[in-house]
Amino acid sequence: PILNGVVVALSDAEKLADLAKFAGDAAFQEKFAAVKHANKVALAAYMKEQLGLVVDPGAMFDIQVKRIHEYKRQLLNLVETVALYDQIRSHPDRDWTPRVKLFGGKAAPSYHNAKMIIKLANDVARRVNSDPSVAGLLKVAFLPNYNVSLAEKVMPAADLSEQISTAGMEASGNGNMKLALNGALTIGTLDGANIEIMEHVGRENMVIFGLTAEDVARHRADGYSPRAIIEGSRELSQALAAIASGVFSPDDPNRYAGLIGGIFDHDWFMVAADFDAYASAQREVDRRWNDKPAWRAAAINNVAHVGWFSSD
Fold first, then answer.
1. Could you give the residue ranges of the DSSP H alpha helices within 91-192?
2. pLDDT tens digit sequence for 52-76
3. Number of Cα atoms under 13 Å in the Cβ half of residue 232
């Protein structure tokens, strides 16, 4: 890339950091946004070809691509997606932020709950994408066969990076680094490499929510009761009831009874405990998205300050 006539070598962390000088420059923001949009157009074309799904490149591309595991909490993302779907249908008059929610990743062959989470993502996608009442506001897709070649399409197109593992359970991870390098804002817990990214990128350029590792440990030690939390959260209880009762699996109404029952009975991965904070953080993401100059500045600052992770 050329910035004001100066060639910048992106392999050089110091030169990459120079991008921060341009974070508030309107002309540079426009060029930066044009590159991001072109990458989103390319991913949209891929999805149309591979999945037959038409999405708007102007919508927020909200992406969670990683190994499917309960501690990585794709289930939390899906439950909030169901809650959002219900809210859009119940309040069509609100000024909703259009989103394209994308999931991708592989599960261990014998990991039953991980396989069920993949199934749920596809079932939610089928229902949401066929509902005209949310057309133009919400699309959902599980991208099959996630691999390096697909990551090369997905990561440059990401606006929002979902790094929402249960605090204290993510050893490191580097997908969050790759997404930040490609100009995605992170929504995440204070866990794993999110903490290091925050130290370099700045908390103001991320959206941090939820329990800390110490909070999680205290909840478990004190006899955490997910059922009480669920009953006290209208959005959460409605979303879980819809999934468990077969709204998204009419061909097999009991398909997700066990998966959702686990949240009521023990919720080891703190899905219920973090739901309200996560849903609130997502509405903060909406507010930020609608302030384009501020969003672009934050995205540029993400790119500028992750050079420290280049060896990873």
1. 112-129, 148-154, 175-181
2. 999 999 999 999 999 999 999 999 9
3. 10
